[in-house]
Structures are given as structure tokens and as C-alpha cells.
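User: Okay, second chain of the day. Same drill as before: sequence in, C-alpha cells out.
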Amino acid sequence: MPLGLRIFLVYVLFIGLTGYFVLNTVMEEIRPGVRQSTEETLVDTANLMAEILRDDFKAGTLNQNRWPQLLRAYGERQPKATIWGLPKNQVNHRIYVTDANGIVVLDSSGAAVGQDYSRWNDVYLTLRGEYGARSSRSDPDDPASSVMHVGAPIRDGGRIIGVVTVAKPNSSLQPYVDRTERRLLGYGAALIGLGLLFGALLSWWLSRALHRLTGYAQAVSEGRRAQVPHYRGGELAQLATAVEQMRTQLEGKAYVERYVHTLTHELKSPLAAIRGAAELLQGDMPAEHRQRFLGNIDSESARMQQLIERLLNLAQVEQRQTLEEQVTVPLAELVDGLLQAQVARIEGRRLRVEQAVPAGLALTGEPFLLRQALANLLENALDFTPAGGLLRFSAERDGGQVQVRLFNEAEPIPDYALLRLSERFYSLPRPDSGRKSTGLGLNFVEEVVKLHGGSMAVGNAENGVEVILRLS
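Assistant: Same drill. C-alpha cells below.
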């Protein structure tokens, strides 16, 4: 299972459990909280009514005044109020008054007058000077029919002479409880959704960052060029820096070992030729023989120098992961300069040159490397083009790439050599001298092209050979 998915699943589990416990706890507190608030309001209302009714109760004139009609009219009122988006079209309070013996003397519903309520806690506890409240079901089989009752004492001096009870059915509170629960569930679900989205984005970002770093490590292990991922601080940036430092150190050691071995192997042949010629020159010999051996020493020395220079150039390019500069390079101007530098050799062999690069065509890259790469291609083409042959530079833009083509008339490349032309130190004999080159030219060109994000292809064409460079 991918690391990003595992992190996301752990995050989902954490958010899910946290959201469940928090929402469950809050939901369990909503109903008691609403009832506590309602009970506090009933306490105030009951005590207010106790003070309002005290004088008439002491005088025994409750039923003789307008209190029964007032309470009945109160019960019939239709407020037509809207509370938090919920309509309220009737009052829900029931008010009844009991005497010192717990007998109901006044009831807003008119149903309990004369009944003994002395055993109900709201009356019983209040008559004893305690806080009297109860919650009872009007229908014993229906839990939703519970009614909250709060009593308040009617006092005559320090003596309790009666009780006023204000009752309110819990069912009247249920719409507000349901609305609060729905809103809370909605907000909770939205927050959990946002949390999961954030977790998904975090997991994706972390997975993508690690994937980039893994891709870089794989590219380095396979010997491909890759640019170290860039992170803005933190452990990932430190890890990327550490991997890059490790790559540099490991590649540097292996690179030096490989090049020392290669250079040692390649210098054996010219050194042996120089040493043999030097030994022969120590003895007496005709002047023409001496001159020939001196020429051998000179040519082998030049070959060693060329080999060393090209190895250094190739090493410089191979060790680089990115271009040091990227500027616009006019291609036609670059090709003209290369042809002008080889004009003596071109005219000496009477070659026909066609420069078909459009004047406005340009590519983006490092000018020095591009010049060296095209110079190597041109030198290689001049080595194989017969006297009076054709040499043609052309280029065109193909989508987001520039295709550079160099054609030269020559004998076809043997099939066995086609796949090895860019291999290091592999070379075919030159037609004129029969000697081989260092075998580093095309390898250098391929490295430069890869550094520019392109590719190189060498193949046989009609009446000659063509090299195609595809550069971004």
C-alpha cells in the first residue's frame, strides 16, 4: 500500500473517531442543556406568578376575580412568532395554584381544580421550603409526553400558604432540539469533510514529494540525468540535499576510478608507439627513417593530447545534471561560424556545402556546449565525406522541438556499427587514412543533446549518412 494512502487512512481514522466522540458528546448535551435553560425560565415565571397572585390568594378571592378568565385567555393566545426559523402559534405554559394542603384551587387548563396534588414533588417539596420540581408523563406509555413542572411558594410573611406551579411540555422544546441537532450534524459533517479534504491534500503532497525524490534516486541509480527535487525547507529539503551529496560523492569516486582505468587503457597504444620510436631513434639510421619515426612520435603525441582533451570535455558534460545557462542561440549564425572555421578543409577537398538553416530559427541552450557538439558532428562528417562530396546542414521546428540535420555523402555505415556509433571509444576507420579517431566525438554530442533534453539519431540515408538532433 502506498505511503500516502496509509497516511490518509490513519488520518481518516483519527478524524473519524475524533469527530464521532466530539459530536456524540455534544449531541448528548443538547437536550439536557435546553431543558436546563427552560427550567431556569420556569423558575423565574413561577416566582413572578407567586408574587402577582399572593394578595388575592391570601384574601381567598382567586376564583372570584378575573384570574380564571385571564388564565383561560392566556391558554388560548396564538403568538404567531417565529423563533430561529421555527413558528410558534400557541402558548404551552400551564399554571396551577395549590393551597397549603396541596389542593388545586386554580388551574389554567380548568381540569384539576379540587384535586389533591400534595404528593407531587413540585407541591410537596415547595410546601416544605425546598426547591420543588418534577418531570412527569401525561401518558405513561409515551416518553415524549413528559411535562416539566416548577413550583414557587406563596408566602405570608415567613409562612408558606400556597404554591404556584408553572408547567411546560418537553414536546414544545423538541423542534428546537431537533433543529440544533441538525445544524450541529451539518456543521460537524462539513468540518469532517474539510478535515478529510485537507488530509487528502496533505497525503497527496507528501506522496508526490516522496515520489519525486524516489524518481530522482532511481534515475541516479540507472545513470540517467535528473535534477534534484526542490523543497522549501523542512525534513524533505534536508533529505533531498543529503541524497544529492551522497550521489555526488559516490559518483565522483566511481567516475574517477572509471576514467583512470579508461585513460590508462587508451594511452597504452600511443605510449608504446612513442617508446618504440624513441628506442629506434637512439641508434644509427638513414635520415628518411629518422624523419618517419619523428613523425610517428609527433602524430601519437597529438593523438594523446586530443584523447585527453576530449575525455576532459566529456567528463565535464557527463558530471553535469543541468545546464549552467540557458539563452537563445541563433542556429543559422552558429552553423555559419562552424563552416567558416573549416573553410580551408572544405575548399581543399572541394566539398559542396548547402546551408539550409532558416535565418530566424533559434533554440534555447548553452551556446558553448552546442557549438562544441555541432563542431564534433562537422569534423566527423568531413572525415568521411569524399572529395567533391556534398555536405548539407538543415533545420526545422517540429512542435516544441528543433530538428537539426547534418547530411554528408559517404559510404553507408555497416549494420553492425549503427548501434555502437555513440559508444565510448568506438570508431570506424577513416576512408583516407584508415586510422580510427578517439571514439569520443559522437558520445560527447549525445551527452550534450541529453543535457538539453533532446535525442540524437544516426543512420544511413540515400547516397550518404544523416545525423538528426532533436533539441527542446
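Residues 252-256 have pLDDT under 50 and may be disordered.

User: Thanks, on to the next one.
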